[in-house]
Amino acid sequence: MNRKELELILQQGEGYKIEFKESPNNIDKELAAFANSSGGKIFIGITDDEEIKGVNISNKLKSQIQDIANNCDPQIKVIIEEFENILIIKVREGDDKPYKCTSGFYARVGPNSQKLSRDEIIEFFKSEGKIRFDELTEPKFNYPKDFDKSKLLGFLELAGLSKSMKRESVLVNLNVAEKQEAKLYFNNSGVLFFAKEPQRFVPWSVFTVVLFKDKAGVDVIDRKEITGSLFEIVDKVMDFIKLYSKVAYRFTGMPQREEIYEYPFEAVREAVINSVMHKDYFEHGHNNILKFFPDRIQIENIWVKPRNFVLGKTVFRRNQLIADLFSRIHFGEKIGSGMERMRIVCDEQNCPYPEVDYTDTHFYLNFKPSREYLKMSEAEKQEVGWENELNERQKKAIEFVRKKGKITNKDYQELIGVSKITAYRELAELVERNILIREGSGRSTYYRMIKG
Q1: What are the chain's domains?
Q2: Does the global pTM surpass 0.70?
Q3: What DSSP letter does each residue of 383-435 carry, written as one string?
């Protein structure tokens, strides 16, 4: 441990394998939780707010902690280290689960140690015989050849973490890699987030999206296999949804019109995140699927239903490391139910709650159109129907015109990042479709809106 590594850990904050405690009080539950999960580190002398308060490190304190570990049932193996005035307790994943402390059985759920109920204890420890996919080492992954530096930099930016730390240290501290004999070995969570081509190692991690013309799902308009890292997949799936979702405008008398979208994008995004976060990656024959019908959006996921599962109440994370990585970049919940977050968004936007259906093998989530959108008149909906036929570059240009009143060829080049000829061709297409009108001549040529 050095100062830079400590700074990185403080930036990351508490997580599935990291716990901060100001004092050693009630440390037994953290020891049991880590031993019952995947192991972790406890930093004594740091507050929950990542403030270093320090602690008086003495042989008596170290003996006290060792005694607490020995008094757990069965004994928990720990390694005690110190850095400056911080005591670091390394807890190994237990070989003889379950582990019990004085107040009961605990397990790590995200960044928290959660006490298990009787039924949860039964279910939790029945499932312990199953290997966790996201923690398995991928032997075919060659670092740094297969590693994508830009994906890590993008992740660190989203997580608000420093980019100046040594890359290998960051990867180890994110729990996506392990260093052995000067060589870095990636686990599957590291591959799914930071490989150049994640699907070369996990081909079934693609996300299928389909647009249907009919409610029965027979006539396909568009179909894509979304690839990339898991956080890229989420964004690409949402791009597909936004491309084909409808929008209406409500005129309020203000300069900007109020946009009323057909679906609650934030709630759908939460569902997409949960779909990739909790996917059973041991199942090779089924992709996550999003089906876009004329009257609903359905997300389909294969799973093995947890025993005593109660929707909205059972906190269920199949892939703890993947969930922890998502939480660090603020994708998905750190604690609690994703369903509850979806309901909050739906309440705010006056949308129906997502309808849930599940069997022992499949989980389905259905979103219906917003009540606000359905209340809009057909004229208000049709007025902007042409926008759904535009590509993302053209939509960006239209938004620019709405804000600025007009756009020039040079504006388009700088906004989209294309050549002068490409800008001319794409602006001409908008003119041909009677969306923009061309005015002026020569260097004074500009384009303004005809529609909307």
Answers
A1: 3-125 (3.30.950.30), 149-201 (no CATH), 205-373 (3.30.565.60), 390-449 (1.10.10.10)
A2: no
A3: HTGGGGGS-HHHHHHHHHHHHHS-B-HHHHHHHHT--HHHHHHHHHHHHHTTS
